[in-house]
Amino acid sequence: MQFNFKKFLFLVLGILISSFSFSQSINSEKLLKHIEFLSSDELAGRKPLSSGSLEARKYILNELTGYENVQALYPDFIQRFSFVSGRDLKNYEDAANLVAFIPGSSSRKVIVVTAHYDHVGIGRPDAAGDSIYNGADDNASGTAALMAISEYFSKNRPYHSMMFVALDAEEMGLRGAKALVEDFPYPLDQILLNVNMDMLSRSDKNELYASGTSHNPQFKSILEKASVGSNPTLRLGHDTPGTGRDDWTKSSDHGAFFEKKVPHIYFGVEDHEDYHKPSDEFENIQPEFYINAVNLVLKCILALDSEMAGQGNVE
User: Fold this and answer.
1) I need a surface site. Which of 155, 193, 253, 293 has the fewest CB within 10 A?
2) How far from 275 is each of 113, 127, 139, CA to CA, in Å?
3) Residue 33 DSSP code
4) C-beta of residue 54 within 8 angstroms of C-beta of residue 117
5) Per-residue pLDDT tens digits for 248-296
6) Interior angle at CA 20, CA 7 and CA 313, nearest 5
7) Domain ranges of the chain
8) Contact predicate 176/85, CB 8 Å
9) Is the pTM of this model over 0.85?
10) Chain centroid, CA 196 distance in Å
11) Is CATH 3.40.630.10 correct for 26-307?
């Protein structure tokens, strides 16, 4: 048989392209497994310090600390904090942010990736008698993405160091994020940016938003370039001052970073009919959209890590 070099070349290129594509993807099977467990009735809505929250904490810690090249910045990977809720005036002792650190190859700067793992717990029953607010999209979706993306970077060392933080008590006033920035292990000016994820698993418009470029225009062209032809479509916006509820600048944990003048990008979807209802369940997420959305977030983080290289180099 005559050797066909052109055919061989195309075959090799195809394998390389396929491998490159695969190498920049999260583990979809594990991603769906994570969100399904975190939003299960067993965890009863993950209200801070509830038995369901403690189960979620154990699950997330077991996953994050099992990755290679992950280091602890707080004892046992846990940043503990307390607060008094403004809603019920209850003192919440021993709330917990779960923090895993992956050293970068060449920079002192840190990209802090966050997602809150709490939700609102048990509440008023709906018409079907369901009183468990499972919080599948809000925010088991972001927490599962946090674990999947941290696993990726544990195997693919980033240029900048990365801190992956599952935050507690977001639903009670960004309490975990505020505790983190008040007790951060490095000077805050060492943070390159905060990437926050809150609600990633469903969009009838097939759109994912990256909010924050109005305040941080240095990231705009990087995100636009990284998302050309993306599925889902990446939209920039929901960050214009003076637009009320349409401005997401302080709508989730990135708000605590914003208050400290730390740059941020917030990935999320627009509100849907099941937002903060018992019907925000695993059965109502859109798996294909969710997997694609998390891979798009990963692609954007890779681009930010690469394109911002040179800031805070190790001497």
Assistant:
1) 155
2) 23, 16, 10
3) H
4) no
5) 999 999 999 999 999 999 999 999 999 999 999 999 999 999 999 999 9
6) 135
7) 26-307
8) no
9) yes
10) 5
11) yes
